[in-house]
Structure formats: C-alpha cells, structure tokens
From TrEMBL:
It comes from Streptomyces mooreae. This is GNAT family N-acetyltransferase. Gene3D superfamilies: 3.40.630.30. It comes from the Bacteria. Keywords: Acyltransferase, Transferase. PANTHER family: AMINOALKYLPHOSPHONATE N-ACETYLTRANSFERASE-RELATED-RELATED (PTHR43877).
Length: 170
C-alpha cells in the first residue's frame, strides 16, 4: 500500500503508511495500548510484561510475512498515532462453504491522546483498501467482549456480529 493521507476530525492530517523493518521498535512501543487492556481483563491469557525483544520479533515476523500488511498512522511532524495489522487469508471451500479471500484486521490501536479524532477510521479505511487490492470481498475482525469502546467503534464503522465465541475455565 502506498502512503495515504486523511483528515482527522480536528482538521489534522493523518498519514497512513506501510510499516517497514525500521518501525519494529516503534510498533513494539505502541503495542502496550492494546496489550495493557488485554492483560488487565485476561491475565490468564496475556503476559503481564512481555519482553521487548519478543514483541519486536513478533512485529518483525508480521512485517516479513507477505500475507500481512502492518500500517502506521502518523500525525503532525511524523508523530505516531496508531497502527493496524491486516492479514489476507485464503479460505478454501468445503462441502458446506464457499471458498473466499478475506482480509482480517488482527490488531488496531490508537494512542489515547488521538482517540476519537479519526485515526482509527483512517487506519480502518486503509485496511479496507488492502483488502480491495487483494480481491477480498469481506473484512473480518474480532473483539474481546470486555472492550466496549472497540465494539462501539466497529458498530459505528458498519460491522455486524457474525459469531459469538464462548469461553469457560476448567
């Protein structure tokens, strides 16, 4: 994806670009936005303080994966405002389902001081563009039930629920 620009709700320019290997440390630093919320609500699943090298390796692998596009949102003077991780998936058909190519939004995060200023919407539209360019007909994502803000963001962006995953401790 080539760099794209959008105007945020306060009139600021938001530049969306594809992340490169040089952005790994920045992505790892931004990851706490999402990870801290997950750790707070599901400490049984998420590591309390992940090692920086491990988080960087995670993003390095995503950037190197040809099916994944990692996007960064930059604001005024190149300040990082958020990121998104999108994956194009080929789903083979079965006797019961059609084959399809979809784009999956695996992660999205916006720095708190830029929340509700159009950064998430700009990242989401860039993910849609990734999907369109790959011939996808659907964008899918999942959201933790505890994340009411994210559920509202997706609802306002036109998403609708398809399945409900249930969890039970044994």
């Amino acid at each position: 994806m080539a760099a794209a620009a959008a105007t945020g709700q306060d009139g600021d320019v938001i530049r969306i670009r594809t992340a490169s290997a040089g952005d790994v440390a920045l992505l790892a630093a931004l990851n706490h936005i999402v990870h801290d919320l997950h750790t707070q609500h599901r400490p049984d699943l998420f590591v309390d303080s992940p090692e920086g090298d491990g988080v960087e390796a995670y993003f390095r692998a995503r950037i190197a994966d040809p099916s994944v596009t990692v996007l960064l949102a930059d604001g005024e003077e190149g300040k990082a405002l958020g990121y998104a991780v999108a994956r194009v998936k080929n789903r083979p058909g079965t006797a019961l389902t059609h084959s399809e190519v979809i784009v999956s939004l695996d992660q999205i995060a916006v720095v708190p001081e830029a929340a509700r200023r159009g950064v998430g919407a700009a990242l989401l539209e860039a993910v849609r563009e990734v999907g369109r360019a790959a011939g996808c007909r659907r964008l899918v994502t999942d959201v933790w039930h505890f994340n009411a803000d994210a559920r509202e963001f997706y609802r306002a962006a036109g998403f609708s629920p398809t399945t409900v995953h249930l969890d039970q401790q044994l």
